[in-house]
Amino acid sequence: MALINIATHEIHCKIVYYGIGYCGKTTNLQHVHRSINPNARGDMLSIATETERTLFFDFLPLDLGTVHGFRTRFHLYTVPGQILYERTRLAVLNGADGIVFVTDSQAEKFEENVQSISELEMNMRRIGKDMTTFPLVMQWNKRDMPNALPVPVLERYLNRRRVPSFEAIASDGRGVFATLRAISKNVMAQL
């Protein structure tokens, strides 16, 4: 749920990058953080778990305009992808205004991706969110890998809602901002 700060005339929106461990969630956020003018973004913070980290930073987009005279400020989060951190993922999802589901396109990661999207749907039900209307975009990451599944296969089995999807190679920034723009616009439309 977006938070409105009357004093600063800002609307704060939370976007969560969700997916399996090492699929590229952190790489997406690091690329965005490096690429945005330091005056338009906050610091990148990391909350370490034993084997992964949850990242957070916020930024104020300059090109999406205002909503009823309020500037929008987006806070980007990642969730830890490993199975044992399900409670942490649920906590990070709480209060989200939009989700980017980052998929590791490699064939050997397919089952993990299927389990992760199923868990996302279950967690959203747990926090009372309707996935049929909730802002969501899919990112098919690691498209440069020789064993990347064809996009039509990913679309068929992972994108049942037919939400916007983007091919990406987050390690070199390809598709990162297209994905972020799409989820930001989707969240803004919900406001």
From TrEMBL:
InterPro entries per record: Gliding_Motility_GTPase, P-loop_NTPase
Protein name per UniProt: Gliding-motility protein MglA
Entry-linked Gene3D superfamilies: P-loop containing nucleotide triphosphate hydrolases
Native source species: Dictyobacter formicarum
